[in-house]
Amino acid sequence: MVGDFRALNTYTIPDRYPIPRIHEKLTPLSQDKFITDIDALKGFHQNVLTDNAKKLLRIIVHFGIFEYLRMPFGMKNAPSHYQSMINTIFPEELSEGWLSIYIDDIIICSETWDSHL
């Protein structure tokens, strides 16, 4: 079951947390010899919703009312919220430069195999 949040998104105040530009994340990788890309499978769905958010994201159909318990796709602020959350988890690694994150793609890069491990 999928929710259509277009109407809700028109009333949503945009989250101003910056999502990096993809070329700013990929260009520095050209200098590294070893790159690992990890896709955070169902990353958005790891975010538990508040009770207020659950009420706003209800899906009403002829056989019942359904409520999301986790952040679904299609919400206006989902990408910026997820980027903020993941950056908060890895601040030290991001500042060291060997870790790069673009929403749910986590990239580990290094110049040598030993440092990569």
From TrEMBL:
Record's InterPro entries? Answer: DNA/RNA_pol_sf, Rev_trsase/Diguanyl_cyclase, RNA-dir_DNA_polymerase, RT_dom
Q: Which CDD domains match?
A: RT_LTR (cd01647)
Task: Outline the extent of the Reverse transcriptase domain.
Answer: 4-115
* Listed Gene3D superfamilies: 3.30.70.270, HIV Type 1 Reverse Transcriptase, subunit A, domain 1
Entry protein name: Reverse transcriptase domain-containing protein
Pfam families cross-referenced by the UniProt entry: RVT_1 (PF00078)
Can you name the source organism?
A: Austropuccinia psidii MF-1
Q: Which residues cross the membrane?
A: none
